[in-house]
Write a structure and sequence with these properties.
alpha/beta, Peptidase_M18, Aminopeptidase i, Domain 2, Aminopeptidase, globular, nine-stranded mixed sheet, 2 domains, about 25% helix, Peptidase_M18_dom2, five-stranded mixed sheet, 10 helices, hydrolase
């Protein structure tokens, strides 16, 4: 039995607004939380005692959010249906001593975060975003969304062989953005951030800042069938998961499982943090939910045994200029629907049982889907999927949307795929 389509091109329009408003993981979870609040979810603090009442709840920790909806009548052993995603993207992040420069230029010292395509950050107008920590321990979001910084490429006249031999970038020497002229003064950047953010001078004690491209997302192509934009890996999945969770929650007592959104930070550098998928956050939240409903360890084990997670992350669409890099029998295309990602060496967690779960969700949502597997001669990337499966003993399936230019400052997907993914995720969460 099929479900009516919940999302259409308006969902993709909304995704583009979400991407523009979420230049950092901290903004992404704040925006997801705002949407959940409007749908009736409420935030619970990890330091408070939790109750077993029904309804939607969520936990925020840094750049991660875990949200869930307990339907009326759910028992302590009711299993979960989880959409897993991550909020971070490869980029340039501000160092502890940020003020630097050379030869009369003022610059900002940055570290390379994740496996970013370095050349995509060159000659691009960049803003500054993230969060600062104040004297009292509170946090304040930072979003300077104007042309503030730039990483200038060396002119071709000074690098005559660049087009023949390729661009070679040293992460330490060549990726430092400029933001003005004059003498370097210690404390300049943070003083600027305090002023921009409306914080009293000297009140900032810590920062988690990064640069972002200020160019907004846009439809692309003759028929506007493509979308170009930043941070699709993996805010596309965070946005779809948030929409799917709120849609599933509307089913209320008709649900037979507990739908969950788990959006983690630090996937791009291994997930090993207190807000990463390899940390205890998801397991702790799920266990506390079981125990809050009066459950025992036995109930927890039963709930986990019946739980399924769809790890939703972007994957590779076939590249028309490099098709030899792809498996010859698997060529995912934009607007062909979400992809099922398979790797028998467990870089992805999908097995035959997981395939059946995903196929059933897509069939119910009347959504087409595709398969992805890497070329045997190429190394395969990985996701939070295998980590989630191994850490929690949860059946996990790796899926996503096929894109081009993964890990670029600006990526490309099909305009239909975001809402096709959201429809499939909704069908999955509804059980």
């Amino acid at each position: 039995m099929s479900i009516p389509t919940r999302f259409d091109r308006g969902h993709t329009d909304d995704l583009m607004s979400f991407l523009a408003a979420s230049p950092s993981p901290y903004h992404a979870v704040a925006n997801a939380a705002e949407r959940l609040e409007k749908a009736g979810f409420r935030q619970v603090a990890e330091t408070d005692a939790w109750d077993g009442t029904s309804g939607g709840k969520y936990v925020l920790r840094g750049g991660a959010i875990i949200a869930w909806y307990v339907p009326e009548g759910a028992s302590a052993a009711t299993p979960y249906r989880i959409v897993g995603a991550h909020t971070d993207s490869p980029n340039l992040r501000v160092k502890p001593i940020p003020d630097t420069g050379a030869r009369g230029w003022r610059q900002v010292a940055v570290e390379i975060y994740g496996g970013t395509l370095l050349n995509t950050w060159l000659d691009r107008d960049l803003g500054l975003s993230g969060r600062v920590t104040l004297k009292d321990g509170s946090h304040r979001l930072v979003h300077v969304d104007r042309a503030l910084l730039r990483v200038p490429q060396l002119a071709v006249h000074l690098d005559r062989s660049v087009n023949a031999d390729g661009l070679k970038l040293d992460k330490q020497r060549h990726m430092t953005p400029i933001w003005g002229l004059g003498e370097v003064a210690e404390g300049d950047l943070i003083a600027f951030v305090e002023e921009e953010t409306g914080v009293a001078a000297g009140d900032v004690r810590g920062w988690d800042l990064m640069v972002h491209s200020i160019e907004p997302p846009a439809y692309l192509g003759r028929d506007r069938e493509l979308v170009a934009g930043p941070r699709m890996d993996n805010l596309l999945s965070v946005h779809a998961g948030t929409a799917a969770l709120t849609a599933a929650a509307a089913a209320g007592s008709a649900l037979t499982t507990i739908p969950v959104l788990a959006a983690f930070d630090h996937e791009e550098n291994g997930s090993q943090s207190d807000t990463g998928a390899d940390g205890p956050l998801l397991g702790t939240v799920l266990e506390r939910s079981v125990f809050a409903r009066g459950g025992s360890y036995e109930d927890r084990a039963r709930a986990f045994a019946g739980t399924v997670c769809l790890s939703s992350d972007t994957g590779h669409a076939v590249h028309p200029n490099y098709s030899e890099r792809h498996d010859p029998g698997h060529h995912p295309m934009p607007n062909g629907g979400p992809i099922l990602k398979v790797n028998v060496n467990q870089r992805y967690a999908t097995d035959g049982s997981g395939r059946a779960v995903f196929a059933a969700a897509c069939e119910r949502a009347e959504v087409p889907w595709q398969s992805f597997v890497s070329n045997n001669s190429m190394p395969c990337g990985t996701t939070i999927g295998p980590i989630t499966a191994a850490r929690h003993g949860i059946t996990t399936v790796d899926i996503g949307v096929a894109i081009l230019s993964m890990h670029s400052a600006r990526e490309l997907c099909g305009a239909k795929d975001p809402y096709l993914l959201a429809n499939a995720l909704t069908a999955f969460l509804e059980g």
